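Hi R.,

Quick one: here's the Lipoprotein LipO sequence you asked about.
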Amino acid sequence: MSRRLLGVAVAAALAATVTGCGSGGSSSTDDTLEIWIRQPPDSDSAKTAQKLADAFTTSSGVKTKVVALFDDFETKLNQQAAQRQLPDIVINDTAQLGNMHSQGWLQEVDKAALAGSGDLADRAWQAAAGSDGKFYAAPFSAQAFALIVRKDWREKVGMEPPATWEDLTKLAVAFTEKDPDGNGRKDTSGFVAPAGTKRGYASWYASSLIYANGADFLKPNGPGKYVATANDPRFVEAVQYLQDQFCRTKTVNPGAVSNDTTVTHEVFEKGQGGIYLVGPYVLARFVKSVGTDKIEVLPVPKGPSGGPGTLGEGENVYLMAGSQLQDAQKKFAEFAISAEGQRIGMNKDANGAIVRLPVNRTVDMAAERQDPRWKVFQESYDFAVYAPPVPNWAPIRQTSADAINTVWADCSADVKTAMEGLNTKLTQELQSQKAS
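And here's the predicted structure, written out as tokens:
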């Protein structure tokens, strides 16, 4: 039996939660740590990941292989699991923890035994915890969402930064109606939005305003248990606010209900809209493509019925089950969360950061990044809301996206009724996950 398959058998025997998936990848060698990261191949972010891996190899002597994948990342990971060829390390979204843990892919992480774990922010550790309260990852990167706005457009229409949702609507209307790009045509929109259903984007986009209004998709109801709250009036109010942008004021870019982030980034860059509620990972890109003097970062205004709040997320380092290289896995996690690893991942002000906001509190972000706009994202993280540690967040986000997208695409849809229906579906999903 090969070392890799022997590792599979041992892991399956020792842990009931491990499904017997092997490690190392189909093309890796037994002493090479294979690292998968959800980034486009040959992108600046993939190159930063390679720099991180190379620095780890120099520091530890452990050989590494970085595999950067973006499209259908989870599908390809499932295929590797079916072939018993899971990679050793996966750097992926915090919201994927429940899904991967429920399939038995993840090793438990002993926080106390992980060198440097005490330097990490408590809020970041929340995103590494499963529904059972145990840790199944090492926090690596954090981000909070804010508004990237065309500053030149705002100044041209003579308006101040929005302090309320009403102000935000007025700014969006001005960007739509007052020819902010000065080309003599009404061909601009207020908001650009990835409002499609792929990977749950409609829910992902709406969540910042839902949180900013003091609402949430679920609320805790005992240890490891939750109750759906999509019918909360504050939740309905936030979704209604966005439906009004699509249907009443018509301030959202055409085609948004079918778009994902890849398309929406380009819509913003082409000057087709001026307000983008998004994470900091595109800031350096927009500075380069749009112009540093043309954009600003503003916090999400507090909602009329609650807040403040905004979406919080990021990436974890997942130590995959069944690996023959458990010592190397642990060493890589420790390097990734160290001050050196975090600084490499931040990539200063250049495009390609895979650490958006550092989770290591000993890292001085201001010393690494000179662009003051990062400070808005850092301050917003103080009230950012992570997805709760249900067994599997993915179907909850997808079900929510389908319902929310429907009321944006169909202006005759009643938001309150639709959110009541969503609440019923979320309750059923919680029951199926035994988290109700």
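The chain has two domains: 3-144+313-385, 146-311+389-432.

Cheers,
M.
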